[in-house]
User: Fold ROK family transcriptional regulator from Microlunatus spumicola.
Amino acid sequence: MPSRSTALLQAAHAHPGLTRADAARLLGVGTGAATEIVARLSRASLLAEVPAAPSGARGRPTTTLVPHPQGPLVLAAAITHETWRVDVVELGGTALATEEGRHGAEWATLATTLAATVATFRDRYDGRPQALGLSVPGTVTAAARLDAATLLWHDIDLRELWPDAPVLVARNDASLAAAAESRRGAAVGAAVALHLHVEAGLGGAVVDHGTVLAGATGTAGEFGHMPFGDPAVRCPCGARGCWGTAVDGTALARLLGRPVPRDHVAYARQLIRTATEADERAAVRTVAAALGRGIAGLVNGVDADLVTLGGLGVDLLAAAGPEVEAAYRAGLMAYRRDDPPPVLPAALGDDGPVAGAAEEAWSALLLTLA
Ligand SMILES: [Zn+2]
Assistant:
């Protein structure tokens, strides 16, 4: 159980604009105790108060809890296949600054750039950054070592980006996007949320009451490699019939009898958005149905009450929502069909992974502060 100080910081982080009176109610403590905890956190430069707007309710005026101007910050970094980005994030999730750029898939060069950016931000913010959250396009071990097969990065030590970081959290981008949707996006309030990100692969995560299901070795969420696809199709992973091969650009090219383009993600995005020929529209509908059918299988299996889609999933929902929905409903067990868990576009879009990196870093950091 977190201490009441930690719980109050967690509440102020989760609910920006929270008043001291609301915090007292959330924590189940009296107003006197809340005032005392806030005073202690304020003396420790962890939280500050500003007068709250009058609520019209009876009782003494309260205050709004805000980040302390000298308080801790986290650095949230997101690495994609082509780009990098580092945000400085204060309590409550607001980004104060961002640096970003492109990289040429050479780890040593990228690591130098990222380490320099981390050092610059620590300097610019007078040492206030105390944690680093990292979103990466690959799998991460408990010892923060990264494997990103498509970038040819193997056994990379992510700690070199900030060797003496008080807190370092590194996770797969799809898991972090899922965490962000549950904390700040379309899945806030869901008991068990399923997030799926369709891009070069199909990944995601199950978030169980706010906790991302990481798996025994930290690599859960490879939903694209469940055999919901055509058993005649071999997946680059070595298996046959992987779901991912039925919902991506390779599936569209195959359905149209065309060669698979090198950048099949850009190809799929373009085709889904602009399909005009009858055969192209039919291919998009087929892929949309394959997505909906697989979602039904997952919802039946994990009993999610809400599903969010990112990446090409958003494009498929926009272009062929009825086909996604029809296949989804047809695949749901009958008792779920009266009230099917909603399938929604992710609210945070491309910001999901970096927002998730900030959330996971804050979650870990808050446990160490108060
Ligand atoms: Zn596979």
User: Anything to note?
Assistant: The radius of gyration is 22 Å. The mean pLDDT is 93. The domain at 4-67 is CATH 1.10.10.10 (Arc Repressor Mutant, subunit A).
